[in-house]
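Next up, sample data.

:::
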Amino acid sequence: MPYGHAVPFVGREGELLRLRSLLQEVKSGFPRHVLVEGPGGIGKSSLVRHFLLEHRNELRLLRASGDDNESELSFGMLAQLIATPTSFSAWEGSHDPVSAGLQLLDLIGSLQDNGPVVMVVDDVQWADVPSLQALTFALRRLRADRVLTIVIARDLSHPRLPSGLRRLLTDDQTARVTVTGLGVADMQTLAQAFGAGTLHLGAAARLCHHTRGNPLHARELLEQVSKEILADLSHPLPVPRTYTRLVLGRLAACAPATRDMVAAASVLGLSAPLHLVAQLSGSQKPLAALDEAVEAGLLVEHPRRGRLSVAFPHPLTHAAIYQNTGIAVRADLHERAAELTDNELDRLRHRLRAATRSDGRLSADLTFFAREEARAGRWSSAATQFVNAASVAPSDEERARRTAEAITALVYAGRVGEATDLARGLPLSCPPDIRCFALGVLEHVRGNASEAVRLLTEAWQRCDVAAHPVRATRISEQLAILWSMAGRGAEGVRWAERAIGRAAEVPSLDFIRLIHLTALGCDGRAGEALAMVRVLPTAGSASTDELDQLLGRAMLRMWTDDLAGAVEDAGAALSRSEGRSVPYRVSANCVLGEAEFRAGRWDDAAAHTAVGASLAEDSDQLWLAGIACGLAALVPGARGLFPEADAYVTASAALATNATSITYVAYAHAWIATARGDAAMVVNALAPVLDLPYRDTCDGPGIAPWQDLFADACSRLGEYGRARAVLDAFEERAADQERHSSLSLIARARGNLLAAQGGFDEAEICFETGLRHDALVDLPFDQARLNLDYGIFLRRRGTRGAAADRLEAAHQVLERLQAVPYLTRCERELAACGRVIRSSSMDPRSGLTPQEHAIARLVATGLSNQQVARELMLSVKTIEYHLGHVFTKLGLRSRTALAARLAAQEP
């Protein structure tokens, strides 16, 4: 049998049956993910290939394979999935895994029109990180898609795998197919295929045991050993040569020109254009050499993007040849390859592979390239190049500097696990300020705020600011974030201004201006901060720094009751967030979602806060995850969707490690308990907020309004003194800053407190005061709660007509918001007033889920299904699935009818 013959496919019936079963589920409209795992050479790829061959006429296939030599090429794996040069340009322009993930969702959606889609990613551990992050984002958003995703991996512990993808692949919902060694019967079949005849049971069992069922190793023996020896149990089997020796033996039998070409190909990667391989090897007759290499099983033809390329038939083949090419020859080939390429990334990669010692010039070039990547928002690429620069740095100190920059970039790229490993590997001779900075950044992103402040403060004290301005600025940036999050606005302002003062010297200060503005707001200087950014360009023409300020202005406007301005600014900032760091993207979604929540746009708010929470979780941004999850719990909590709300609160509870996250998580917990009517739980939930030592964030009017929830709960429990103390302190600050939203909440809660104590006349004055403040802001739910509580108060005083008027006003808003617990209470009170309310068909009891309602509302505005999918970050098929349910439940047949129904119900 010639060397080029592949290992025949035998056995694996159980594994094939599992894949076929999963495909049937997919055909029914249920997306499934499957992890195919096992050691190298065991037959994982062969199994998947055979499965695809069985179903080749009924599937749309997207296929890609990781390549260690292309792991630094951002979105290289996604480019393989789409497989056409015209489409590739779209991926090349995308620097943001979220946007790339949305593009992948679009592609998957369009392919499903012609049948189920199978998406295969082989050797996932070698794929580039941005592609894997985009893949993770897309897979988490498949809901009603006919998509079977097959991920082939040797080891899920590889540090390059994003933790979000690792969690997805190990989730209970992901099927796992573990490929093990072949059994005895399968070994008999394999022997027949290789011309060894029919092995008797004992001989097959011996071969199976000897090779541990590995098909590649069995092939070695079947090719080396005669049929007689294989069948003769008295004759010991020889120890099989390693696969490497087998490959090298085949290579040695080739002509020198072929050997040179195969070695050159190995330097260029798992695959490369034939003309480039020929140039590098100096081959005058590349086709003849290729024929011999193919016959020997060393290379295969690999047409790619319209040109003839060559590839290695198996990664183990490539590794055997590359690793056994002499070091000097390999270095020389890499040097020549660097001269042949026009691509700067490829040139640097080859120069790095050619380096056999430290190289200051190469380190400087890699550092320059990394900083340019950071400026463009390509954080994953920047991190890799900083690591590479460190590997060839001429001194321990220089290596430590580049490593510190790499850690920051890895954090921004969402690769926190790799950043942690890198920090642990800092050399013992690392300067103390660098070590403290690197460890401080990690403690920060992992949510250990107090330890992060200690380390970064020490880093600042030890840093020579004049000699190392970049490091000093990065330290200032981190401390600004930490102090702001810790509830120390003045400290946050001071450190932010230090960082901004040196911003021109740093590749990218991703959102320091946002931190500066919000720190001013927490310090009670919101008016001053707003004056600084009163005039900003539109999002379309804004610079990176101005977009940063736009998002900061959104938060300030939200805190100062300008909700329309806050929604507009945050929406504009989010629309231009492609290419920004993961923390920025999380922040943009959360700010927009919170502003929409306060403005009564709850369906939009639910969508954006859910995306923020998902992004924070996927990228291990623990310092933001508590806030994001807390905000994501607000809409389902107020709507009585308690399992969903509780899941967010449970996820965020362990992440509340700084004053801001503690406040938002406690607020969300108390918010849900309020909707449940559990006063004791409200008080317990807010206990951590009362114990915070630094209170600029938690006590700031307009920031996280927990005080009225606490006072209401205390009033219900008869703890009137505690309620009054919190309200008095909060009212003083709110009055000083003229926060009408906060003063309205205080008036409502104080009215309830006074009513509980029997002070009815004073209570009525408080409720009327609340109405006057409410008239100056547009906070639908807060207004509805005020009308609800005032109506209840009036009914119990016997003023049923005035009470019913208040309750009806509350009911109209609560029904629109689908705030079921409050709506139920309102209807009960209205019934007691003798009023009967006819709920519209779009109230919570009409049967629409929150997601269906969000989709229906967006469709009614005239958006296409694809546009709705983009808005909600879901697949088109998911939108189509839910929209079909909307039409069925409402008895409608057209988008026009849906728009008319919703328009008729708008307040």
Summary: Residues 1-5, 84-94, 841-845 have pLDDT under 50 and may be disordered. The longest strand covers residues 147-153. Strands lie at 32-37, 60-65, 117-122, 147-153, 175-178, 271-273, 300-301, 309-311.
